[in-house]
Amino acid sequence: MSTHARPLADWLAASSDDALQHLLSSRGVRPDVPWQDFFDAAEALLDPSALTKLLPSLTAAEAAALLRAADGGDPGGERETLTALALLRPDGTPYAPLVPVLAGRSVTEVGDAAAPGPAAETASAHAAERAFTTVAVLADVLLVAREAPFALLAGGSISAGEKRQLADSGISADIVDTLLAIAIDAGLAVAANRRLRTTASAETWLISSVADRWTVLVTSFRASLPRGVRSADGGWTPPESWPFAHPWDPSWPERSRMLREGARLLGLIAEDGTEPEWAASVRRGEDADPDALVRLLPAEVDRIFLQNDLTAIAPGPLEPALDVRLRGIAARESAAQASSYRFTAESMAHAFVVGETEESILEFLGGISLTGIPQPLSYLVAQTAQRHGLVRVSIDDETGRTRIESTDLHLIQAMAVDQSLRPLALAKHAESLTTRVSRETVYWALTDARYPATLVGADGAIPVRERHPAPAVTAPDVDAPDVSALIARLRDHQGPDADAAWLDRELEAAVRAKAVLQVTVGMPDGSTRELLLEATGIGGGRLRGRDRAADVERTLPVSSILAASVVAQ
Fold this sequence. Notes:
Layout: H1 5-14, H2 17-26, H3 38-45, H4 48-54, H5 60-70, H6 79-84, H7 98-102, H8 121-147, E1 150-151, H9 160-168, H10 176-185, E2 189-192, E3 195-198, H11 200-206, H12 210-223, H13 252-265, H14 277-283, H15 291-294, E4 305-306, E5 311-314, H16 320-327, E6 331-334, E7 339-342, H17 345-353, H18 358-368, H19 375-387, E8 391-395, E9 402-406, H20 409-417, E10 427-429, E11 432-435, H21 439-448, E12 453-455, H22 484-492, H23 498-513, E13 516-522, E14 528-539, E15 542-547, E16 552-557, E17 561-566
Parallel strand pairs: 8-12
Antiparallel strand pairs: 1-3, 2-3, 4-5, 5-7, 6-7, 8-9, 9-11, 10-11, 13-14, 13-17, 14-15, 15-16
């Protein structure tokens, strides 16, 4: 039995549905918990394991107020919040089961941290350069993930092997986790089926200007900050106080370190801890204004030099939309103030796979080139266009199998004996190959093996295919689970006589525990009688037990029992 749960059960029953929704969602209660009434809910919420699970989410101010209340002091301005979490009674005193859970806990006293001072011109310039680099590097990471989604470990991070591959591309492995956290918060990447993939919104972000890219990242970074570092005006508290924001969360030191690193990478904190001009308004909860940041960034260019050795040189940071499209046609070799790109047969074939044509490529390159289109590049585009579609992958209407056809029978013969294609179990059929493997899988297997494969639809048309199509844009899952059905069930079991319901519950618990009860029985003449009863059973509206004083079995109508309490053994 748990008499301490009764006050909370009464408070829950008297609370509004909105207050219950807030409480249950804050405590992480699943909608399918097997609670039958508010007594069940109160006991579960006051279970030591449930309380221990909640404490890490408390902010430093809430934790300090809770300790004051446990010592008999005034919780101050946090009383309402802690009461809404079912940690304190409305009078500001803690529920009994909470006191032992708080034993040994403490909160480091930290004074009010002052807002960071304005950054000097040099520090601001360095912060702007770092923000510019972060945006560019994150774009590189997303482009890699778009082509080959990252495999996720059980903890949610990407493997060391993939970090090394990114490092080989010039992306520091030390910042990969922070960059991916920023991307996920911004809705640019999502974990699905143990893989980290770009989203549809990433496609829009990638072709946006640097200012728009930065604004999206900063706005989402602020929106995703935990309660402990959020300020009342919708911004954030001074970063030097962040390590102390959630004192009872064992994972918080690492989390706060990553948040501070994220703020540094986004140019919101200078290296010396001061604050650049563009960060102050964001910290205060106002809209992000990148104008001051953009003034310190290098000017973007919209023209390139095409050279006879099949390379392209951008004389400055290329506009993002142009850079992304160019990298769909050419492989970028270096990224600096002047980036270089190289056109290869593989990069050109990839461009045709994702929907480019000879005309669209030549039109695009001619529009941004300062040197025209060199003849070797024209030849490469034309040659790739001729080969594209030489191998056609379709579905055989008669058998339903995947069919591979080509006007070049030498290619058919080569594919039939290609060891890398053995998993497809290709079978000769007239002058083509067939397999039971799906059309999409066959197509990408042939593409990986560098065959000029093309998907062909039922109508003979050539559809454009993305290997890893981006998931549909969805709003972040910030809504709490719907517990309205649970609340309704608790309301349905809320009887008119709470005292009688609680007494029944206490008696049933005593019988299960074979406890000794001090029972107060109302007699027909209006008097009362005290009995010391060892509970043995209950049913049919009657309590059975052995009277310790008279050493006889008694059966008492539950309706006659006025009070019952457990006697310590």
